[in-house]
Design a protein that fits this description.
alpha+beta, Nuclear Transport Factor 2, Chain: A, 4 strands, elongated
Length: about 150
């Protein structure tokens, strides 16, 4: 039968146990707060993805932005249809993600944005406007996708 740990080794044992508990706590907190690619469902991952979507949209990368749309939307709307949606009268000149709120119970979230835009008319070329917009995003197939407000389905 093994002997009890000697009194001289007890502080070392307790120190090792405390270190293991502390590292486990740090790892658990780190995992829950991790940013992409470890925790795709996190608010940070969604904020990054929403910002990428709008960066592409503002830059005119319609094909890239289209890939960020929900799968059910992409089944019903072609890339050409997506490119036409909202084009013409308003030109987006910038967008910034302001806040993200993930619903932990459902695979949905709201993203608050400040969008810079101007009207596509000669008289308004120098008049840039700022709008505050809230978008809905859904979590499907392991990542976040934008769900357009005008889309039912």
């Amino acid at each position: 039968m093994p002997e009890a740990v000697s009194n001289s080794r007890q502080p070392l044992l307790w120190g090792a146990i405390a270190a293991i508990v502390a590292l486990s706590a740090v790892a658990a907190i780190g995992w829950s707060e991790a940013v992409w690619p470890f925790n795709q469902r996190s608010e940070q991952a969604l904020a990054r993805r929403a910002q990428y979507f709008w960066d592409m949209k503002v830059a005119g990368d319609v094909a890239g932005a289209y890939e960020y749309m929900a799968e059910s939307y992409r089944r019903r709307v072609t890339p050409a249809g997506f490119a036409r949606d909202g084009q013409g009268m308003v030109l987006h000149t910038g967008a910034t993600v302001v806040d993200v709120e993930v619903d932990e119970a459902e695979p949905v979230a709201e993203v608050d944005l400040e969008i810079l835009h101007r009207f596509n008319r000669a008289a308004f070329v120098d008049m840039e406007n700022k709008s505050k917009v809230t978008e809905r995003w859904i979590f499907e197939n392991g990542t976040w996708y934008r769900w357009p407000a005008s889309f039912r389905g």
